[in-house]
Amino acid sequence: GNSVTQMEGPVTLSEEAFLTINCTYTATGYPSLFWYVQYPGEGLQLLLKATKADDKGSNKGFEATYRKETTSFHLEKGSVQVSDSAVYFCALSHRSNDYKLSFGAGTTVTVRA
Amino acid sequence: DGGITQSPKYLFRKEGQNVTLSCEQNLNHDAMYWYRQDPGQGLRLIYYSQIVNDFQKGDIAEGYSVSREKKESFPLTVTSAQKNPTAFYLCASSSYTDTQYFGPGTRLTVL
């Protein structure tokens, strides 16, 4: 079946540091891939997505590239801010699973000033 | 503004009570979903509905019930059969094959 494996946290960084959160997936065919962000006490917000191989999703300085050859969708940001402190979820959807989302476990990121 | 609303934001339940969580969307989405999130953990699917008057069980449906009488509404009832209902509940909607968008959540606490 479909599954997502996400880098375990927590991750603690200083402001302006480089952030990478690894995400790999198992799925048949070509799933759509997503990164969601959850701030404390809130729902999930879509951060970025990619729907086909080699697509790059980007938003708010974050980027992730859909790599079919390595079945990966790693999230990166070149210079983090305190406001980026949140929980980040990698997810996929595919028609083989009725387009339901399969989530990773989430990675807690804390950025210190 | 288009979006998903959930109410109430906080809900307290006594042992043996049924409670209903509201989820409304004005995005004209066909599909709606309910998830449960426990502290420090990921999301688990409770129920989902791809069309009005139809819904399917997710991974943890026991102790929960839903209805989908209107396209914009998908209420979740947490019944007394749910043994450990304290959690954060998230509703989402999508145009079936497209991106899911989430509401702000309801935090349920059993007293």
How does this model look, in words?
The complex is a heterodimer of chains A (113) and B (111). Chain A has 113 residues and is mainly β. Chain A has strands spanning 3-6, 11-14, 19-21, 23-26, 32-38, 44-50, 56-59, 62-65, 75-77, 86-93, 102-103, 107-112. In chain A, strands 2, 5, 6, 10, 11 and 12 form a six-stranded mixed beta sheet that branches. In chain A, strands 3-9-8-7 form a four-stranded antiparallel beta sheet, with no helix packed on it. In chain A, strand 5 (32-38) and strand 6 (44-50) form a beta hairpin. Chain A is globular, with a radius of gyration of 14 Å. The N and C termini of chain A lie far apart (41 Å). With 111 residues, chain B is an all-beta fold. Chain B has no helices and eleven strands. In chain B, the strands form two sheets. In chain B, strands 2, 4, 5, 6, 9, 10 and 11 form a seven-stranded mixed beta sheet that branches. Chain B is globular and about 35 Å long. The model of chain B has no long low-confidence stretch (mean pLDDT 94).
